Automatic annotation (TrEMBL):
Subcellular location per the Swiss-Prot or TrEMBL entry: Membrane
UniProt keyword list: Ion channel, Ion transport, Membrane, Phosphoprotein, Potassium, Potassium transport, Transmembrane, Transmembrane helix, Transport, Voltage-gated channel
Example of a GO cellular component annotation carried by this entry: plasma membrane
GO molecular-function term, one example from the UniProt record: ATP-activated inward rectifier potassium channel activity
The keyword Translocase is assigned to this record: no
Taxonomic source organism: Sinocyclocheilus grahami (Dianchi golden-line fish)
Domain Potassium channel inwardly rectifying transmembrane intervals: 38-176
Protein's name according to its UniProt entry: ATP-sensitive inward rectifier potassium channel 8-like
GO BP term, example: regulation of monoatomic ion transmembrane transport
Family matches, as Gene3D superfamilies: 1.10.287.70, G protein-activated inward rectifier potassium channel 1
Transmembrane segments: 74-95, 148-171
Family membership noted in the UniProt record: Belongs to the inward rectifier-type potassium channel (TC 1.A.2.1) family.
Site residues by UniProt (Role in the control of polyamine-mediated channel gating and in the blocking by intracellular magnesium): 163
Known catalytic reactions: K(+)(in) = K(+)(out)
Amino acid sequence: MLPRKSIIPEDFAFSPALVSPIPRKPVFRDRVNKARFIAKSGACNLSHKNIREQGRFLQDVVTTLVDLKWRFTLVIFSMTFLCSWLLFAMFWWLVAFAHGDLDTNRKPGVEQCFTNVNSFTSAFLFSIEVQVTIGFGGRMITEQCPTAITVLILQNIIGLIINAVMLGCIFMKTAQSHRRAETLIFSRYAVITVRNNRLCFMIRVGDLRKSMIINAVVRLQVVRKTTTPEGEIIPIHQIDVQTESAVAGNSIFLLAPLIICHVIDKDSPLYDLSAMELQCSDLEVIVILEGVVETTGISTQARTSYVNEEIQWGHRFVPIVTEEEGVYSVDYSKFGNTVKVATPRCSARELDEKPSILIQTLQKSELSHQNSLRKRNSMRRNNSMRKSNSMRRNNSALAVPKVQFLTPEGGPNLAVT
C-alpha cells in the first residue's frame, strides 16, 4: 500500500534546502484586501469595544467634553446652565415659601424676604437674573432674610465655576491642534527610486500657511502583520523607519515643500522588498508630522499613510519651486506629480549584492533615451521634408503655364499668357 501524501506543502517541509544559506525565490500570493490603520485624512481606523470601566472618562471631565462632538458639547453646555437655573429657582421658591412671601393673606406690616417673587415662574426669572447678573430691578432680596443672602452667595460662586469650565471647554475645542493640521499636506503617492546610488522611499510634505511650524519633525512607521518565531501573531506590528533628518538629529525647516527621504538599507523593513513583492505585500507606511504652531504655541500633529497601491516604484517627484523675479514661487498644482525614471526592479538587498544591476539599468536608460532622441530628430526631419515638398508642389501649381501659338507660316511662336 502506497503511503498517503502529506497535507503539508513541500515548500514548508523541514528540508535541508530551508536551512541552507542559498536564498529561496520569493513566492507571490494574492494579496487580501486589508483595512488601513491610518486613513489618508489622518483619522485612526480603530474602534474601542467592551470597555467596562466607563467611570474613567468621568475622572477627566474636561478632556471628555473637548473630545465630544459639537452637537453633544452644545447640548451639555445648554443643559448645564438650564439645570442650574432650575435648581436655584427651586431654592428661591422654598425660601420664599418658608418665609411666607407666597401667602396672599399675610399681614401688611411683615417684611418680605423678596420683592415681586410670588410664584415658581417669578423665582425662575429671579434665578436667571442672579446668575447672569442681569438685574432688571423689579426683584431683589431684602435684609430680613439671611438664608436668601446665603443662597445668593452660593449661586454666584457656582455660576462662576460653571462659566469658567464650560467656556474653557468651548475655547479648547475651537483651538484644537488638529485644526492647524488641516493646512499640512502630504503627497497622494509615495515613490521608490534611486538617489545617490541607493534605493530610497520618498514622500513630499508641505505647509499651505505662511506662519511656520517650529521644530517640525517627520517620523515614519511601517505597520504590518507579523508572526514571531514562537508562533505569536502580532496584527499591528509598528516598526520605526529612520529618515535623513532623523539620522542627522535635526528638525526640518518647513518653509517650502520638502521631500522626506528614507534610505532603504539593511536596517530598513523594506530591505528585502522588490517591485513585484510590493504589489502583493500588506504593509502600510505611516507618516507623522509633529511641530509647534508659531502663532499659538500649541503642538500639532498631522498624519497620513501609504499602502502598496499608493507607492509608485520607479518614479520621482517633479520640482515645484522656481525663482521668478527674485522671489521663490511654489506651484502647488504640481505638488503630487511624478515622472518615471530608470530604477531597478529588484530589492535593495539584491542591489547591494550585485551593484552591476544599477549600472546596467542606467545604461539601458541612457540607450533608450538616445534612441528616443534619434526618433524625435528623424521625425522632425521627415516632417520638415514633407513640409518643403508640399510647399514646392503648391508653388508649381501656382506657376503661370506657357502657351504655344502657330503663325500662318507654320513657325512656332511662343507667348506667355
